[in-house]
Structure prediction request, 765 residues.
Amino acid sequence: MAEAQKERLTDIGPPHYQKFLPPVIKDNYGKWDYHEILKPGVMVHVAEGGDKIFTVRAASPRLVSIDKIRKYADLADKYCDGYLRFTSRNNVEFLLTDESKVDPLVKDLEELGHPVGGLGNAISNIVHTQGWVHCHSAATDASGIVKCVMDELSEYFTSMKLPGKLRIALACCLNMCGAVHCSDIAILGIHRRPPKVFDDILPKQCEIPSVVASCPTAAIRPASKDGKKTVEVIEENCMFCANCYTVCPAMPLNDPLNDGVSIWVGGKVSNARHEPMFSKLAIPFIPNNPPRWPEVVDAVKNLVELWAKNARKYERMGEWIERIGWPKFFKMAGIEFEKEHIDDFKFAGLTYKRSTHITY
Amino acid sequence: MADQLPNTPMLDELEKGKWPSFVKEIKTAAASNDMSKDLLGILEKSYSEKIGHWKHGGIVGVLGYGGGVIGRYCDVPKEFPGVSHFHTMRVNMPAAWFYTSDALRTIADIWEKHGSGLTNMHGSTGDIILLGTTTDELEPTFQELAQEGFDIGGSGSDLRTPSCCNGMARCEWACYDTMKACYDLTMHFQDELHRPAFPYKYKFKFAGCPNDCVASIARADMSFIGVWRDEIQIDQEKVKEHIDKGVDIVNDVILRCPGQCMKWDGKKLEIEDEYCRHCMHCINVLNKGLKPGKDRGCMILIGSKAPIVEGAQLSSVLVPFMKMEEPYDELKDLVERIWDIWCEEGKARERVGEFIQRVGLGNFLEAIEVEPLPEMIAHPRENPYVFYEEYYEEGDDDDEEEEEE
Ligand code: HEM
Ligand code: HEM
Ligand code: HEM
Ligand code: HEM
Ligand code: SF4
Ligand code: SF4
Ligand code: SF4
Ligand code: SF4
Prediction:
């Protein structure tokens, strides 16, 4: 075998990005003057010397087959001398120098089922995680909910009619492999039943002191059952974080009856105007309802449209809520305020209202 | 080879609708790949039972590396033998995810030969995620990728694959060369990336300006965010053009400025740069008329992490301004000092942000030899219980200190 004779390579690092930059970018690296959004999903960057690069941004399900990757490559060859990139929110961007090729490319992408958009005051792709496709920890599926929510919201991807940007993210458990905690709307899978302790396998698979130490609320203590060393969970102290399960496979929290989804709002990452903010709890629990999670889709859509209708220009979800106050938000959103909305972990007191600044 | 696809009434519902469908992607792969076919089957089972079917972890990898591969086994191997082993490989993407069509085809060809034919473009840390293969295929996949110039990325308690925004390649606001810095540091710290030796994971993310398009402030142990420290460049003519085209400068710009440092007298835009907070809003809106200043560099923030406590999970300022020039020695030196103390004193599974919370930012700064600065805090302490480390005794000689100098 030819390959076997080649020297084994390690520590070579990623390929140098210079190999992948189109000539117009190499020529104008660091010399861009301004950009303009020409229409949904299409923008032009103009260099100081007048060179232009056109970007066409298209949606992607992120989980893509090699067949689709080859189709992206074919489109890049057909329209952009083979140059393309992906974005931090998993969209795909084609980089063109010939403006007349923009419309035909957009058409081809739409025929391929990949809407063009996500620029400017729009909803971009949903950053998300693995879910039932690939992870043991998942309290819900990731790709499925994303698909259903975006099916419903795609008009906000392919247009720019919103007051500002809106970022949605989804994580299928509290490990939060996607950075959901700073999103305008975060969809977060949650467990609601304490771990089941499999006493038979626990001593074989897990180190008891590290399991005990893993629990942030000290809800786990060593125990012995039928002479075997194991652990027990003080159920009322458990907050379902699954830290124990991460270190010990014999303590799963997954449970079809109790797993589901929570919805958080008002986070942002960008420093524009307001400082970055965390998302805050809006809806504590919605049961899993595959394959299309209609309750989750409705809840998200309701929040998007409420914000779109009421926010001032450029105001992100969190900025809007900060202006009107949480009581108004709950009232306008038609969400019942419950005990779960009030923080009860360390430093919870900082989240209580500590002034008379309340609207009626 | 795969003959017939399994019956998947629930997943079929997810082929409908306007958004591109991941189920179609899995089906496309399944048409010629038994692993993907069984993935379809096991996923349908999860949909009908509302529970996942993956077992917890398992250590697999390639020779000489400790990271980059995630072991995955399903809990119903008899029913779905194709995914009884379904390991994931993380492949370090090129900076800012630029590719040529040939590079993409190379990856597709290798993955057709050795795996499920399914990928994530990309993972949330940024890697190319090759989803699903068996242990035997890992080494050949790795070596074929390496011959084509690709290496695998980080996982476990190591430096995770660094990522960056497209910066100077296609953005007029980049205050330093994010792609160059990302590539340079990735190459410099290859050993830390491939061989987990930290208390826990450590991430770098490079954003060219405070818009932070890679979410570095929320997702990286060390966030490098481009900033300027002189005056915003103003082209008054072009500002007027924006206004002529309908920008409501008072309501949409001046009143939205968090520094309240802008003035518009009907003809001229003035900015009191001393009070500018570098939020980017005015530049975003008046993008032809305004540009970041010329004295550019980056702000370094540390520690996104620490569950639950409001405010604590975002990175906080460590270095208000640093010039970003090759070979980045000052930066690398700082990183090494941080890793030294964290590796020495950090507990297992303690992110650097949590470590700082535990020992206190003040003590941490002392350990890494960085002076405390007011830029690092939202406000000084409200709590009067101060841990002073020294006190005077009666008879202490005031002159002693002077002598030491
Ligand atoms: C809105 C509330 C929450 C936010 C904003 C939040 C945010 C975060 C963030 C930013 C991380 C670090 C991710 C990383 O490693 O990069 C994290 C990790 C984690 N969070 Fe949360 N979290 C929240 C609630 C919770 C809750 C309620 C629990 C469990 C009760 C939890 C358990 C964990 C665990 C176990 C980790 C991983 C810890 C580790 O890295 O060892 N989180 N969270
Ligand atoms: C076996 C189960 C898991 C799977 C399949 C999984 C999958 C992934 C994948 C594919 C990525 C993107 C990686 C990349 O681009 O390099 C990722 C990132 C991440 N994972 Fe996991 N993960 C798992 C378990 C965990 C656990 C237990 C934690 C926390 C304790 C965790 C926290 C994270 C975080 C914080 C990120 C990075 C997010 C970011 O960059 O903003 N994951 N995970
Ligand atoms: C020249 C102007 C800009 C360029 C070239 C640029 C580029 C990008 C790109 C390529 C992405 C990935 C987007 C996607 O897939 O949808 C992105 C994401 C993002 N951008 Fe920008 N952007 C620009 C301006 C802005 C502005 C004006 C803001 C804020 C007001 C902003 C905030 C963000 C945020 C928060 C993300 C999401 C990051 C994440 O969660 O991964 N960007 N940007
Ligand atoms: C930043 C630190 C603190 C400041 C600036 C501060 C300031 C004050 C001020 C201005 C008053 C009102 C005095 C007056 O009636 O004229 C006061 C009252 C008081 N402070 Fe503090 N204080 C601080 C910390 C503390 C701490 C740590 C404690 C106890 C643990 C404390 C206990 C009290 C009590 C018991 C009163 C009387 C309250 C009352 O009249 O009901 N203070 N403090
Ligand atoms: S968020 Fe949780 S369930 Fe989802 S992929 Fe990450 S660790 Fe797994
Ligand atoms: S799920 Fe979290 S709180 Fe509950 S026992 Fe496990 S570690 Fe403790
Ligand atoms: S972070 Fe700033 S420099 Fe980088 S792409 Fe976004 S707007 Fe441009
Ligand atoms: S960058 Fe932000 S703070 Fe600075 S002048 Fe512009 S709007 Fe004001």
About this structure: DSSP finds 16 helices and 14 strands in chain B. The CA atoms of residues 143 and 151 of chain B lie 9 Å apart. The pocket of iron/sulfur cluster (ligand 6) is lined by residues A 194-195, 214-215, 217, 219-220, 233, 238-244, 253 (CB under 6 Å). The radius of gyration of chain B is 26 Å.
